[in-house]
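Let us practice reading a record.
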Amino acid sequence: LLSVIPLYFLTLSGCESTTGLNNGDGVIRGNIKDSTSTTNLDSVVITTTPATSTVMTNSSGNYIISGVEDGTYTVTAKKLGYFTRTTTAIVIDADTAIANTRMMFTG
């Protein structure tokens, strides 16, 4: 009976569930607008912490960061002439997290 117990334990400890694992298939996307005029802002530099990719918004104010692992990210938006803004994005089960924000002009 004692020789069966260690074998049983090894069998259970070798099992691992793969439900909910993400190997970098998630996405963070969003839109950046001027806080006063609500105009879409292009050429806004978007970074994340923890680090993923650095991207820039397009002429419609949109950005996409792909290849993101599950987790909580601080998304930072920077553009000359505007106050830097941060928001939080949470990627769960390789899904898409939306991180929109509005930036205030400094001058």
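A brief commentary: The radius of gyration is 21 Å.
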